[in-house]
Amino acid sequence: MSTEPVPQASPAPGGPPEPSRRDRVYLALRDELMSGGVSPYERLTEERLAERLGVSRTPVREALARLQADGIVIKRDGGLHLYVPSFRELTDLYELRIALELRGLTRVLEDPTLHHDRPRLEAELARWYGFRDHRPAPDAGFVGHDEQFHTTLLDASGNPSLTEALAQANRRIRSVRMYDYLTEDRMTATITEHIAIADLVVRGRIAPALDALRDHVGASREVVMQRAATALEMTRLMAAEVRR
User: Fold this and answer.
1) Which CATH code for domain 87-233?
2) Close Cβ partners of 74 (under 8 Å, ≥ 6 residues apart)
3) For the chain, what are the domain ranges?
4) Which residue ranges have biased composition labelled Pro residues (predicted)?
């Protein structure tokens, strides 16, 4: 694992505020861990990481805590390590995620007395129109915006227990789902499809929204599973190298 010292950013005139030092350390570590060059057998220590990044241990400690909350880092064998879920675990969690999300729409289809919270969905739709008009660059952290869309869509159907279950599933697959937002085409597809789904639900067209949501989550699953398979193969090769 080789990381250049965290640079000191200069604010861009009229642009968004530059990330703080702690945010830059977090982003540097996150990007390094997601690059595929770190073995899950490598213990992540504050001292070594701080020396490599050219910072004190405090922002590194905070970054590791955030990475642990993201699910990218886990505590194992008395230390912190890169988390790589098994292929079976990821498959099972995606199956759960799809079932929960689709249920939010099917329950409204099945019961004519139920309705989505339209103002909440309109506000969420407006947020995604903003992403369409001011396209963000590919970034793993975009997974947070994606999760907000899906939990809002589900919660607007009126069953908070479904939303809570989805939030738990999302936390367990977040580290791998981050790989879905590293290319322009996936960013474009996500934004476009979210707008289409939310617009259908706002207009009360639940049946076609259900089909669109099923296709959307299925496409994301295919991308994530493909990249997860690549990551797991790299993990296997790293483990074999460690054993030599």
Assistant:
1) 1.20.120.530
2) 68, 80, 81, 83
3) 21-83, 87-233
4) 8-18
Burial label, 184 (beta-carbon count in 10 A; 0-12, 13-18, 19+): exposed
The 3-state secondary structure of 196-208, one letter per residue: HHHHHHHCCCHHH
* pLDDT score, position 33: 83
CA of 49: how far to CAs of 4, 8, 52, 58, 218, in Å? Answer: 11, 17, 5, 11, 37
Beta partners for 79? 76
CB-based contact 98:217 (threshold 8 Å) = yes
DSSP per residue, 131-194? HHHSPPPP-GGGHHHHHHHHHHHHHTTT-HHHHHHHHHHHHHHHHHHGGGGSSHHHHHHHHHHH
Residue among 70, 69, 77 nearest 42 (CA) = 77
State the pTM of this model: 0.73
| pLDDT at residue 2 in the model | 44
The continuous run of DSSP H or E covering 10 comes out as none
> At CA 89, angle to CA 41 and CA 181, rounded to 5?
80
The pLDDT-based confidence of 6 (bands split at 50, 70, 90) is very low
